[in-house]
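Page 42, continued from yesterday. The earlier attempt failed because a stray header line got pasted into the input along with the sequence. Redoing it now with the clean sequence only.
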Amino acid sequence: MTAKRRRTPAKKSGARRTRDGVRRTARTLARAARGRARAKSTRRAFVDRKKPETLRLRSAGPSLTVNDIHKSLAFYRDVLGFTLGEHYEHDGRLAGVELKAGQVSFWLSQDDWKKGKDRVKGQGFRIYCSTTQDVDALAAKVKARGGTLAQEPTSQPWGGRDFGVVDPDGFAITIASGI
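This time it went through. Structure tokens are written below.
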């Protein structure tokens, strides 16, 4: 003969029986409800994301063709403070460099002049770079290293602060906090 399991009434401690007959506390029930809500939210976000799938980037880095790679390398490394990453040579001559600043990379390549020596660079193009560093201190370092600011540090209406420089080929760069 098998013993029948006797169900005891829920104690007054806040525990109650659920539909499946198991006693659960209010805390356990609330945790389960949060889990169901989180799962529903995740399913909805996943469905929204794939109709249609949109582009989501994690970083970007410009590749600039320059007139004098040594002059440009000196500007980015010695004036702005980039560090040298990879470098590329062609026939024993420097043809390209990777420059790093935090998690951002810029690439410079020497112009081969196949499109003409009078080709203008940097027009209608600006690179915006964000930082958590003190923009005023960075601008002061650029000046101390012999650089010229195209725009002094300025507070913007949206709360950010930025300054601008122009590289030897005319590429405009804005370094900002708060964007």
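Notes: Residues 23 and 179 are 52 Å apart (CA to CA).
Reminder to self: strip header lines before submitting.
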